[in-house]
Amino acid sequence: MSLLAAVLSLARRLVHRIARQLQRNVIFDIALIAVVVWFISGLSFSLVEGVDPVTGLYWALVTMTTVGYGDIVPSTGAGRAIAMLTIVSGIAVYTALVSVAAGTIVEAAERRRQGYIRYRGVRHVVVIGWTPASEAAIRELRGRGYSGDIVLVTEKPAAVMRQIDIGGITIVRGDPTRRDTLLRANVPRANMVMVSTNDDAKTVLVVLAVRGLNASARIVAEALHPENVELLHKAGADIVVPTRDLGGRMLAASLLEPGAAMFVENISRAEERPIELHEMPAGPYAGRRYIDVLLELRRKGMTPVALRRQGRLIANPDDDMVIERDDVLVVVVPSTPAAQEAQQPSGSEQGAREQWQPSRTYEAS
């Protein structure tokens, strides 16, 4: 008996909760009024005209929707009065219903445009902060063929909408240091997160919050000052890019070693770049010497320049280094259709590419 009483009490509370939610819904209120008018008109018509209730309800529905088949018409004065009231009330109710429904749809679209939404997708990319670096990163993602969902978290969505012309971007408005904002962007289910806020202190807080919500996502952060790189690594960032420091080194290299600077510029160009830098899984070449793999890839138009192994970047590996199954090759690829086709991974390679094991440090050796 106690179990039955508990179930009945739970069902009663659930019904009351649903009823309260429905009472707050204007569309539900209007629909309820429409049903009441329909029943009253139909039953009144059946009593006055001497027809059965089903016929009266059929007549009321046809009259309220202004269809007017003409198969049933009032023959008494009272019936005509009921018909006039039904027509007027039906038009008013359906006009109100359509207006409220349209307003709700427009409001929902505007809230989405302004970023007041909760994103429910998974395995997406979250970009936190709207800066020149994050805008360039989003364009680069699309330019490299990434077709997945990108969620942009920003406090000023109006500025984004004025500037951005990239499709497939979902905007979530809010303070990125707040947990509820990150939850609305579904950070716990994201695959990768990029943080660029134009404030290293704020970036550290965001990285800490993101890592606390998602222990496995790849987190890439921008550091404005090189002294904050290690701090961002400790906060949980897998890769930290010191953009200003890199820019300064590029300027110096352009003066002293213009060829090297031109190479970096070519692989970094947003459009019409002659060469590109890509990663490809080295699993199919496991057990072979690096020099043999290099020669084979050169025949396909690709040039390996580095190898990533267990979070460490090995630039210009030794010729006799043996490739391991989990290694990833960094290759230079000409921007030609033939080279791009040759560089496309097989099904097993693609699966390996999608795997990501977080690592806190990346060092060149």
TrEMBL record:
It is a multi-pass membrane protein. PROSITE patterns: RCK_C, RCK_N. Keywords: Membrane, Transmembrane, Transmembrane helix. Pfam families: Ion_trans_2, TrkA_N. The keyword Lyase does not apply. Residues 265-348 form the RCK C-terminal domain. It comes from the Archaea. The chain crosses the membrane at residues 27-45, 81-106. This is Ion channel.
